[in-house]
Specification:
alpha/beta; Pyrimidine Nucleoside Phosphorylase, Chain A, domain 2; Aldehyde Oxidoreductase, domain 3; 17 helices; binds uracil
Length: 438
């Protein structure tokens, strides 16, 4: 096989075989295929597309390029949830203890935050002493004993994807649905879960800004997952404003705890219950998603999800006192409000700018080596559709540095559009994609 011929074939709009795709992925990963040929191939994919078989072949070749995690030492159906990334997205912290308290194992490898989105691993470090780097045997042991462990990614998952993504990033070849879907799914498939529930965010704070693109991505990922024997569901959720009201690190953990205590924001609860329902249903713990939702709701009412969170925090070396009193989390020293500069209704929020406000305060990472301040962040007071009067607080900001506070306030205000006419109500969930379709 010659890479030149395969580039030419794709350029002509023809489909490649599984062997040809595998040759390309393996050859590029090993360094035999140079960047310039891979770039030409990726551009041809962007222009001519890939069919279902090609996309699955690419996903599997990338998944198999590194460690394929074997979770067989964990008893029960292993279920994973993955979000395409959003602002204020603390659903993992809410749904993992709920699902685990019902006996379904959650063995999660999570990431750190980068840019305008946060990461579960950073947030969990808000619990003093909490370790996100426990040894593999303890990880398995914890999941078997109490059904929940969350660690940072240490395994060498899908290195081919890492190398291909770095090239896509500089050759304007990121925005192709087949390439994005195979990139995300290669890592999920290598992580070993049998059931995968995807939270595909849509809107101004999401990777996919339009609903049509989000549906196409969800459909492509569900097709790949089910095509390789992993039961896969995708929930398309709103990211035209942050989820819940808290954005930052310990402030988001506090909001997740409040939700498990039964007084969290309605959108966060709804999205967490919906994703969790598909996790339970996929694990055959409930015979319908409606029944699964009832079971999950009960874990909040009877306190079992909150107790599971405390048990999990202790098992990973953390101080669980904040689970019962969130005032224990360290506080930022400067607290100020961002106020509306006119009367009207909040009609638009540029959500990635809200994420950037938290980053400017010190709560996010500009580069992967940045040190983050877990105590800073913001609490949103006015969301889409809310009526405001000039001078009303739109949000409360928490900082430890006056210059950062000043820059963050300007950034926050510029993310809001306030207009005289009340907008249409927003949805939390736009649709669910299963193997039967949307
Ligand atoms: N996230 C990924 O992991 N891969 C992509 O291609 C895009 C977003």
């Amino acid at each position: 096989m010659r890479m030149y011929d395969l580039i030419n074939k794709k350029k002509s709009g023809l489909s490649l075989t599984k062997e040809e795709i595998t040759f390309i992925v393996n050859g590029f990963t090993s360094g035999e295929i140079p960047d310039y040929q891979m770039s030409a191939f990726l551009m041809a994919v962007c222009l001519k597309g890939m069919n279902k078989e090609e996309t699955i072949a690419m996903t599997l070749a990338m998944a198999k390029s590194g460690d394929m995690l074997d979770l067989s030492a964990i008893e029960g159906v292993k279920v994973d949830k993955h979000s395409t990334g959003g602002v204020g997205d603390k659903t993992s912290l809410v749904l993992s203890p709920m699902v685990a308290s019902l006996g379904v194992p959650v063995a999660k490898m999570s990431g750190r935050g980068l840019g305008h989105t946060g990461g579960t691993i950073d947030k969990l470090e808000s619990f003093p002493g909490f370790s996100t780097a426990i040894p593999t045997d303890k990880f398995f042991d914890n999941v078997n004993k109490m059904k929940l462990a969350i660690v940072g990614q240490t395994a060498n998952l899908a290195p081919a994807d890492k190398k291909i993504y770095a090239l896509r990033d500089v050759t304007a070849t990121v925005d192709n649905i087949s390439l994005i879907a195979s990139s995300i799914m290669s890592k999920k498939i290598a992580s070993g879960a049998e059931v995968i529930v995807l939270d595909v965010k849509t809107g101004s704070g999401a990777f996919m800004k339009t609903l049509d693109d989000s549906i196409a991505l969800a459909e492509a990922m569900v097709e790949i997952g089910n095509g390789v024997g992993r039961e896969t569901y995708a929930v398309i959720t709103d990211m035209n404003q942050p989820l819940g009201r808290a954005v930052g690190n310990s402030i988001e953990v506090a909001e997740a705890i409040e939700t498990l205590q039964g007084h969290g924001p309605e959108d966060l609860l709804d999205v967490s219950l919906t994703l969790g329902s598909y996790m339970l249903y996929g694990a055959k713990k409930a015979d319908s998603v409606e029944k699964a939702r009832e079971m999950l709701t009960k874990t909040i009412e009877d306190g079992s999800a909150l107790n599971k969170l405390a048990e999990f925090v202790r098992a990973q070396g953390g101080d669980d006192s904040a689970v019962f009193d969130t005032n224990v989390f360290p506080k930022a020293t400067i607290i100020e409000e961002v106020c509306a500069d006119r009367d009207g209704y909040v009609t638009k929020i540029v959500t990635d700018e809200i994420g950037m406000t938290s980053l400017v305060l010190g709560g996010g990472r500009e580069t992967k080596d940045s040190i983050i301040d877990l105590s800073v962040g913001l609490r949103i007071q006015k969301k889409l559709g809310d009526q405001v009067k000039k001078g009303d607080a739109l949000a409360t900001l928490y900082a430890n540095d006056a210059d950062k506070m000043k820059a963050a306030k300007e950034r926050y205000l510029s993310a809001y559009t306030i207009e005289p006419v009340k907008p249409e109500p927003t949805k939390h969930i736009y649709g669910i994609v299963t193997k039967e379709g949307l």
